[in-house]
Amino acid sequence: MHKDWTDEIKYKDLKKLQEKELKNLVKEYEDICIYGDKKISKTNIVKCNIWLKDKTPINQKAYRESTENREIIKREIDKMLKEEIIQESCSPWSSPVVIVNKKTGDKRFCIDFRKINQMTITDAYPLPRIDDLLEKFRVAKWFTTIDLASGYWQIEMKEEDKEKTAFICSQGLYEFNVMPFGLKNAPAIFQRTMNKIFKEYLDKFMNVYIDDIIIYSKNWNEHLQHIKTVLEELRKANMMLKLKKCEWAKKNVEYLGHIVGTDGKD
C-alpha cells in the first residue's frame, strides 16, 4: 500500500467527523483508485470495435517531425509500450502521428484518424444534453465529481480491430490494445458503457457525460451512500478513477464547464 495515497483525496470545508467518514469510505475502494504509478485496468463490460463502409486498408505516410517532436513521440511511445496501451504492429493500415500545440504551451501526442473516421459507420448512440443535466442538480446540497483514469484506455479493442488503429511515425508502426482517443465512435461507445453500468441510478442521484461522473445528494448521510453505490458499480465493472482529479463532498463543484451547487451559477 502506498502510505500517503489518501493524501490525494481532495475535499475541503468538512467537519472532522465528515472527513473521517469520507476517507474511510474511499479507503474501502483503494483497489479502483489510481495514484502514483499504479496501472489502470480494463473493463469487463465491453470491447471497442470499428465498423467500416469499406474494408480496403488505408496506408498513410508519417508526417515530418521536428527534433523536439521526435523526442516527444519517442517518450510517449516508450510509455505506452511499457503500460501495454500499444504494441508493435504489422498492420496494412496506418494513420500518422501529429503533435498538437495546446493553449498552455504544452504539446500533446495525437493520432490523425481523420481518414479512417471518414470510412467509419456512425454509432448514433446519443450523448446527454448538458442543459438537461444541469437542471437536475438544483435541489442538491452535496456534490462529488469522479474522474475516470484515462477513461478510453480502460476499454479494450476487439482483437480483429486492433490493426485498424495502427499509427506510423519515425519510431515505427504500432497499434492500440485499448480504445484510442480520436476515433469517431469513441464518445458513443464510452457513453453507452457508462449508461449500462449506472442505468439504475442515472437521473436519481448521479449522471455521466462520457467520462465525467457527478454524484449529487440532499444531505450528508445520503451523499455517503450514493458515493459508495457509484464506487461499488465501478468496482463491478473493473473501472478505475484518477484519485487526485476527483472532487469529494463539496457544496459547489465545476462540472462540464459550469459551477453547480448551493452557491453556484447554475
TrEMBL record:
Pfam families: RVT_1 (PF00078). The keyword Magnesium does not apply. CDD domains: RT_LTR (cd01647). Keywords: Endonuclease, Hydrolase, Nuclease, Nucleotidyltransferase, Protease, RNA-directed DNA polymerase, Transferase. GO terms for molecular function: endonuclease activity; peptidase activity; RNA-directed DNA polymerase activity. PROSITE patterns: RT_POL. One of its GO terms (biological process) is proteolysis. SUPFAM superfamilies: DNA/RNA polymerases. Residues 81-260 form the Reverse transcriptase domain. This is Gag-pol fusion protein. It comes from Rhizophagus irregularis (strain DAOM 197198w).
